Amino acid sequence: MHKVFISGSISIDNLDAKVIERIGNIVESNYQVLIGDAGGVDSAIQKHLLSRQTNNVVVYCAGEEPRNNLGNWIVERISTFAKPGSRAFFTSKDLKMAEVCDYGLMIWDTKSTGTLANILELLKQSKYSLVFINKKKTFKAIKNVEDFQNLLEIMSESSLKKAEEKLKLNIEIDRLKFVQSEMF
C-alpha cells in the first residue's frame, strides 16, 4: 500500500479546492495518509479526512499524546530525546513520516521553514513531493535539486534568509548536487 506524507504550513487553516481534489484522489486510490498533529494544515487535513469518513490515516506525534487526532485514528508516537516543545522535538515526527512514506504532498505558504525542511528531507531520500503553493494556487513537483532551487525562487528575500539560517540551504543543496552527480 502506498503511503503519502501530507504536511504544510501552520499559517494555512483553509484548504484550497485543488488540494481537496488531490486528497480525494489519494483517498480514492486507497493510499494511506500519514499526517502530523499540529494546527494549521495538519488540522485542516484531519478535518477534511474526518468529513470524508476516511479510515486509512495514521497520526504521528512526538511524545505521548497527539495535540490533534480528530478522527481517533491510529497514532504513531515517536520517541525523541529533544526538549519537549522544541523545534527538534516536533521535527522528529516529520523525519519519521518522510522515512516511511512513498510520496509527499506539501501545502506551503512560501515562508514556512518546517514545510521546506520536509520537502528537502524527502528529496534527500530520493522521494518526490508535490507542493501546493498556496499563494499561487498551483502545484509544483519536486523531483530533483533543480526543482527545489526553483521553488526557493518563489520566496521573499527575508523568508529565504530565514530559511538559510535555520536549514543551511546552501550546504544541503551542495550535498544534493554531489549525490546526484555521483548517480550519473
Topology:
Layout: E1 3-8, H1 17-28, E2 32-36, H2 41-51, E3 57-62, E4 74-78, H3 87-100, E5 103-108, H4 113-124, E6 129-133, E7 138-142, H5 145-152, H6 157-167, H7 169-183
Parallel strand pairs: 1-2, 1-5, 2-3, 3-4, 5-6
Antiparallel strand pairs: 6-7
Helix pairs in contact: 3-4
CATH class: Alpha Beta
Strand order of the largest sheet: 4-3-2-1-5-6-7
Number of strands: 7
The CATH topology, please?
A: Rossmann fold
How far apart the termini lie comes to 30 Å
Query: What is the architecture at the second tier of CATH?
Result: 3-Layer(aba) Sandwich
Q: What's the SSE pattern?
A: EHEHEEHEHEEHHH
- Structural category: alpha/beta
Question: Radius of gyration in whole Å, from Cα?
Answer: 16 Å
Word description of this protein:
With 184 residues, the chain is an alpha/beta fold. It has a single domain, classed as Rossmann fold, CATH 3.40.50. Helices cover 45% and strands 21% of the residues. It has a seven-stranded mixed β-sheet, sandwiched between helices. β6 (129-133) and β7 (138-142) form a beta hairpin.
Task: Give structural attributes.
Rossmann fold, alpha/beta, seven-stranded mixed sheet, 184 residues, 7 strands
